[in-house]
Write a structure and sequence with these properties.
Arc Repressor Mutant, subunit A, 2 domains, DNA-binding transcription factor activity, HTH_TetR, Tscrpt_reg_YcdC_C, DNA-binding, transcription cis-regulatory region binding
């Protein structure tokens, strides 16, 4: 029984990994069960034993990804130093883009299609978390501990400036001569946000 459970776990992980590869490259419509089964080293009937449809694989990936994507925002400590907490948030988001580039592109593709599979989570769990983080940031602004800025747009800016490195990997490599897209990104974003967030440095 233990061996069977181990094999089932291995096969499930192989299917999700192959699905991630297919969906991040071709999107939901372009990916096929045949390609996913082949990538997982399984027959199509065997794949369907674990997941009844392509949509089931896709949904499982998105649910897992959303949990990973929300973790850095959840880690924001309301009682910590505002500057360091926000710089840590930027660093964690950049690390996610570096370590999970396929997942980032999968998420971006889903959103570009109107988020048909995760809109409920975006309007629910994600919105609630952004609202909570924004209230924390707004308190820091009101206390004069960081520059006067819009908390929600600050969060959007972090997303844009970190996930870009994964979602536009090909473009960055083309411009930089196929070097590591993340080379120098961390120090650059640290300096950028440190200056942007500094009290008294705003233009409001």
């Amino acid at each position: 029984m233990t061996a069977e459970t181990r094999i089932q776990k291995k096969n499930r992980e192989a299917i999700l990994d192959a699905g991630l590869e297919a969906f991040s490259e071709a999107g939901f419509r372009g990916a096929t069960l045949d390609r996913i089964a082949s990538g997982a080293g399984l027959s199509k009937p065997n794949l369907l034993y674990y997941f009844p449809s392509k949509e089931a694989i896709y949904t499982a990936l998105l649910e897992e990804l959303l949990s990973i994507w929300l973790a850095p925002l959840q880690a924001l400590d309301p009682e910590g130093d505002p500057m360091e907490e926000l710089l840590l948030y930027v660093d964690r988001k950049l690390a996610l883009s570096r370590d999970y580039p396929r997942e980032s592109r999968l998420f971006a593709n889903e959103v570009l299609q109107g988020a048909p599979h995760i809109l409920g989570a975006l309007e629910g769990e994600l919105r609630d978390m952004v609202d909570h983080a924004s209230s924390v940031i707004q308190r820091w602004v009101s206390e004069g501990r960081i520059a006067a800025l819009d908390p929600t747009h600050l969060i959007f800016s972090v997303w844009a400036l970190t996930q870009h490195y994964a979602d536009f990997d090909v473009q960055i490599r083309a411009v930089r001569g196929n070097t590591d897209p993340f080379d120098g990104a961390g120090p650059h974003l640290d300096l950028l946000f440190r200056r942007f967030l500094a009290p008294g440095g705003d233009t409001a």
